[in-house]
Amino acid sequence: MNNHSEKCIHLSETEFCSTWYQEFDEDSPTDFYLSPHTPTNPQQNIEEIQQMIDPTMDQIHGIFYQDVRAQELIDKNDIRNLGLTWVIDPQWGKGTYWYAIVDSDIVLSSMHMHFFKQVEMKGVSSHVVGFGLYAEDMPVLLSGQAQHQHERVIGYICKKRYFKETLLPHRLFKSCAIMLLPSAFFRISHLLQVEPEQLTNAISSLNDYEHAPELASALTDLAAARPSSAMAPIYYRAKIMECLSLVIDETSHWRNAANACAAEDTRLCKMVTTYIVNHLAKDVSTRSLSDAFHVSEARLIAVFRAVLKKTPQMYVREKRMNHAKELLARCNGSIGEIAQSCGYTNQGAFSEAFKLYTKVTPSQYRKGSR
């Protein structure tokens, strides 16, 4: 850690949540991954990745798989033919962590570990765009919600920062993730034949949905695979492209479904509002409206809130009061007759509602409008 660490500002810390620190350069552009001119320096990328990950393995008491101590602790099936593997010191916990660098600027990682004692890791994160399948207590660690969550796919975009993470004992951390450095981002976008912004938005939107079954399945396969030394580079490159393609496909499907739902909601809302306007003197309670259009009351309320930002009864009251104002201004009918025309069987209830809406009584409004 260099002298930048003196400028760290502690932000917050919860039981499981990552604690992030001040960025290196607060004035630097946030859209680093959207620049097509990002230089590619393979050796520099590799060193940056190693500096981000390797020191944290020591901090969480990981033993490198080539260390003689690890030979008795790790199952040979847990050692892949590409990348580096650590096994957790049995005095501190249990499990393994693996990562591999593909084409110098893409990182694959997989972990399955828990600790008997609290451990803390801190260091410098790189500019990365990534996503992964997180299970057990990992979704809680990333989201900061202090409750157990089920397995889910999570996407993230991070600037270069100092970080500090506290891993509490008796929590199980399991994940399989893919991270892209800036130099990989445009290359991958070009191979996928999508705009970089589209890929960014797709990765970001992963957090908005609970399920991405095909992507989750592909990441599960990636974590379980043990390709041979000859086939590992080919396999992992193909798997990266498969997962990124699924990110695009599944999020596009979600957006299309959301747009279809929005269009359906708009059509339903238009039909109901037309019905209300034509039946102001009738029973247009939320229950009667839901019965008339064969939808639940909850669904109808949700549609109105989404489309009009108000409930059905707020809309009914608004239309009835405006209709009453028109009748009072141009018709000579009694207040009781106007009340009935607006759906009120009780003149007193109508007068109270009208005054609440307009701040004057029906008689005062009629007198003032003529």
Show the helix and strand layout.
Blueprint: E1 19-23, H1 42-59, E2 62-64, E3 84-88, E4 93-102, E5 106-115, E6 119-125, E7 128-136, H2 138-143, E8 152-158, E9 161-167, E10 172-180, H3 182-192, H4 196-205, H5 213-224, H6 232-278, H7 286-293, H8 297-308, H9 312-330, H10 335-341, H11 347-358, H12 362-368
Antiparallel strand pairs: 1-9, 2-3, 3-4, 4-5, 5-10, 6-9, 7-8, 7-10
Helix pairs in contact: 4-6, 5-6, 6-8, 7-8, 9-12
Describe the fold and architecture.
This protein is α+β, with helices and mostly antiparallel strands. 46% of the residues lie in helices and 19% in strands. It has 12 helices and 10 strands. It has helices at residues 42-59, 138-143, 182-192, 196-205, 213-224, 232-278, 286-293, 297-308, 312-330, 335-341, 347-358, 362-368; strands spanning 19-23, 62-64, 84-88, 93-102, 106-115, 119-125, 128-136, 152-158, 161-167, 172-180. The chain has a 7-stranded antiparallel sheet with strand order 2-3-4-5-10-7-8, sandwiched between helices. Strands 1-9-6 form a 3-stranded antiparallel sheet. β4 and β5 form a beta hairpin. α5 (213-224) packs antiparallel against α6, α6 crosses α8 and α7 (286-293) crosses α8. The longest helix is centred in the C-terminal third of the chain and has 47 residues, at 232-278. The N and C termini lie far apart (80 Å). Residues 1-34 and 144-148 have low confidence and may be disordered.
